[in-house]
Amino acid sequence: MASTTSSNRATFSAYLATPVMSIIGNVIASLIFIYVLDDPSPVPVFGVFTLFNVINMTLFALLPKKKKPIVRHVNMVLFTLVLVVLFGTLGRVNLQIEGLFFLTAAGVFGAATTHFLMAKIIGPILFGRNWCGWACWTVMLLDFLPWKKSAGWQDGGWKNARYIHFAFSLTAVLGLALGLNYIPHNPAQHPEEPGTVAELAWFLGGVGIYYLAGVILAARMKDNRAFCKYLCPIAVFLKAGASVTLLRIKGDKSRCDSCNTCVTECLMDIDIPSYVLKGERIKSTECIMCMQCIAACPNGALKAGVGVDVVSREKWRLRESDNHS
Ligand code: SF4
Ligand code: SF4
Ligand code: SF4
Questions:
Q1: Average pLDDT of the residues of the chain
Q2: Where are the domains of the chain?
Q3: CA triple 171-122-35, angle to 5 deg
Q4: What is the rounded CA–CA span in Å between residue 132 and residue 238?
Q5: Ligand 2 centroid, distance to 118 Cα (angstroms)
Q6: I want to staple 301 with a disulfide (CB 3.0 to 4.6 A). Which of 70, 255, 290, 311 is the partner?
Q7: Residue 34 CA to ligand 2 centre (angstroms)
Q8: What is the CB neighbour count within 10 angstroms for residue 5?
Q9: C-alpha to C-alpha distances, 19 to 73, 78, 260, nearest whole angstrom
Q10: What contacts 24+ positions apart, CB below 8 Å, involve 109-112?
């Protein structure tokens, strides 16, 4: 059994695969935009986001455990300033999921399409749910709430709520776009104009509804990440990429003594040791690559790493009242 002195904690290199995969993802996306799509306009934005990630993920690796969540939060604030304030509000671009659905219904490739492909649909195949751990503007706010340690997953029908939310958003947008010919702003028809006031209202309304629902759910479940676990429709996309992602947390079972420290630190209540002890990577589509578990493990048994595998069965920590196993 591994000893538990602080010298056994993860070293700097245990965190490195995460910023490296962020760089690789952004370089690939930039090359595709320059050489395949013949549109280099998003490349500077990819560069800025890569810089945010690399600086803050490196600081995360270097700083003491207590200070690590601060830099992750700073990263989220920076992404929020660029995406919500600069693009969404001042630029009147609806980067919420309904913005993507409206563009798709209109047969247009716009900023929301780029954002979703990069952060939430294709990107997660390379770097998992980095978006959820390091960039999301919804949890940028929700992570300030007081319920930082949850009691575990609520079993039962709650787990279907995000699929219902996804279907509702998609159906509503398709009904408006295809049934009533309503599109808040079609950049293909008016490329020279900024987004309309209606586009802005859709964006800010969507952001506001997520914040409200997130706060209510967090208070009810006593869990800051309840919106992520049960209600966020974007997780439907993210989980698909995360089921085959190259980047995951890896464990060394010879160092793991089943102390469960990592589980109590995991924002998504993943049963980490049950993967580690089977010699598997943390093959959960709920992992947000926050790397809190790497920092928490007293035996240095965890690190971020690249590999190939597919999710088979999710292993979560359930609430005591729901845990019948
Ligand atoms: S699950 Fe949704 S709300 Fe939660 S971090 Fe991911 S995108 Fe944001
Ligand atoms: S297993 Fe949990 S703590 Fe570790 S990176 Fe994934 S979400 Fe974060
Ligand atoms: S991987 Fe988790 S359960 Fe295993 S030693 Fe590290 S903290 Fe403890």
A1: 93
A2: 10-240
A3: 115
A4: 9
A5: 21
A6: 255
A7: 34
A8: 9
A9: 16, 16, 26
A10: 110/187, 111/42, 111/87, 111/187
Select from 1, 249, 262, 281 the residue to mutate for testing ligand 3; criterion: most ligand atoms less than 8 Å from CB: 262
Give pTM, 2 decimals.
0.93
Q: Is the dihedral of CA 157, 159, 163, 164 positive or negative?
A: positive
Atom of ligand 1 nearest to the CA of 136: 8
Spatial distance between the Cα atoms of 249 and 306, rounded to a whole number of angstroms: 8
The pLDDT of 302-320, averaged and rounded, is 93
Asked whether residue 320 carries a pLDDT value surpassing 90, the answer given is no
Q: Give me 249's structure tokens.
A: 């947390």
303 φ/ψ sector (left φ>0, alpha ψ -120 to 50, else beta): beta
- Which of 266, 297, 315, 317 should be mutated for ligand 3, with most atoms under 8 A from CB? 297
Q: What's the pLDDT score for residue 3?
A: 40
For residue 113, give the DSSP letter.
Answer: H
Is 229's pLDDT higher than 70? yes
* Amino acid in position 314: E
- What is the rounded distance in angstroms from the CA atom of residue 310 to the CA atom of residue 302? 19
Single-letter amino acid code for the residue at 67: K
